[in-house]
Amino acid sequence: MILKPTIQDIKAIGYYLGKIILGLALTMAIPILIGLAAGEINPALDFLIGLEISLIFGLVLVKACYTEHELNWMQGMIVVSLSWIAAMFLGAIPMYLSGHWISYLDACFDSMSGFATTGLALVQNLDHISLAHNFWRHLIMFIGGQGIVIIALSFFVKGASGAFKLYVGEARDEKIMPNVMHTSRFIWLVSLVYLVLGTLALGIVGILDGMKPFSAFFHGACIFMAAFDTGGFAPQSQSILYYHSFIFEIVTIVIMILGAINFKLHYHIWMGNRKEIAKNLEATTLFITVMTTFIITAIGLTQIGTYPKVVMLFRKGFYQLISGHTGTGFQTIYAQQFVNEWNHLALVGVILAMGLGGAVCSTTGAIKMLRIGIIFKAFIEDIKRIILPERAIVIQKFHHIKEVFLEDKQVRSALLITLAYLILYGIGACVGMFYGHPFLNSLFESTSAAANVGLSCGITSPSMPAVLKVTYILQMWAGRLEFMSVFTLIGFLVAIVKGK
Amino acid sequence: MKKSIYVFIILLLIFDFALAQGISSSELVNNAKLYDGEAVTYKGEVIGDVMTRGDFAWVNLHDGVNAIGIWVPLTLTKEIVYTGSYKAKGDIIEVSGIFNRACSKHGGDLDLHAQTLRKTDSGKFVRERLNPSKVSQVLILLGVLFSVWILTLFLRK
Fold first, then answer.
1. Does residue B139 share a domain with residue B120?
2. Mind listing the pLDDT tens digit for each residue in A204-258?
3. pLDDT single digits (tens) A8-47
4. Mutate to test the interface with A, among B134, B144, B146 (most CBs of A within 10 A)
5. Chain B environment of A308 (Cβ under 8 Å)
6. Contact between A294 and A349 (Cβ < 8 Å)
7. What is the pTM (predicted TM-score) of this model?
8. Domain of B143, in residue numbers
9. What's the number of domains chain B is made of?
């Protein structure tokens, strides 16, 4: 029997959702300040409108649903999934008001793409957008990459138990420190330290590459946020191709890889435990899968001689590959070039890389390296069972921060999430094909959306059908939250209708 | 035989005329192999920064659909005054030069090495006018927000 949700359930969900919306509203103050400083009055007003609407919603929810109860697991998961939907709708308001998005749906698409750190974009005339709006596009990637809920955890939510449920609901199941609040703050500390260093590095490279100092550092901050949070938006319409700079590309590759690494691994490296990189299952799996998918892509590109020199193969082949594998989505080629100049084998290499993703507890999406490593270890274990005598006791271990014995429970969980991702990639591909796109192109774009990558082979455009836009939005949302909170929300809605 | 030679020459002239008349970015990106190594003319608005690299500079020209990177001798960039941004409409520039699908000099970039550059339209600063409807929306919402806040104070009591 399905139980109908109680008033207490709805109040708890509303109260915490309201708090998260209030946190989100405050972040809109940053583009307002940028707009005012840059003398962009209308863009500042766009954000003021967005801020006011968010504050009204947040205040009403917090007051109308006031409760002192802590969240249970179901409520926590629903708060997380609804927070991302609310963030999409509210974050899209100032974007739509700017006039750079044809419809509110397009603005919602880019808003979800930003928060979910995807990078697919429907923005129009990006090269003439205001600094305030451009900064906001990248800031939402920074917020979404750390996790919208992490903001609330860091500053608003009291009570460790409720906080942990929100933290887990946002697809982060690893605590770096014993206390989840301290974990959130550590994630922010890591991100802010890298933000300063990354912006400096990119800004200096920009100046050396001939950009004006203000422009270089503004682009540096934006590109850092999009690279570290494996987002993929860029301040100009040509993405990274705009800079025509090998050094700039190298710096972004380093930042993208840093973003794809587990925050727990960052912590151990910061604490001086550098040997962990070589031993860690995720890090070694990432290295192996990057090499494997690059070999596939390179063979494909070499077959047709698209990039005859090694440097060209690196800057075009490897760059798109690592951008896809880390879930970033920066491009140094035009979207149409994937279709016109890359063969199927090269595209398959990139699709595989996008589908695999980076580390768990990082800013990337997709299946993720720990799960791939666990599945691989389980295969090895099963092969050993077949080869060795029946009486032999087979034990499989792996190293992830510490030595861990492989259990069936972990393998089951890894396989289930992997299966869910594969189904999600497939659904999007089917919708793409329904609208007449070839199979490989549809799979490419669908994987890019669901794995929160952002590479595009040209399907994503303002003229694509609304159903396809909504499909990609749902894929970005479900992919970013790794399904559990989304499934819980669906169950909750069913319980409202069918529950007794 | 003679006929086919004439047809070939006419087609060559048409193609050459088309190239000289200016090609869109879509045409170049979608048919990059066809135009690879050819002399083309391309026109668009200068956007972003003019990035100096020694005796040359990178200029990105946007024709309304895509922006294409132009590798141009620094001396030719002196004509460029306005570059497109939120606050300015960039100069409209017409460049002629060699188009590269994957430039071997620039790590495989799709680019155009300009030999000539001509400003066809001057850019200008765009003066921003305060949008009165946005101001009224801000004020109305401020009123609603204030009312909600007052209500919450009463509810607390």
1. no
2. 999 999 999 999 999 999 999 999 999 999 999 999 999 999 999 999 999 999 9
3. 888 889 998 999 999 899 999 999 999 999 999 999 999 9
4. B134
5. 104
6. yes
7. 0.91
8. 130-157
9. 2
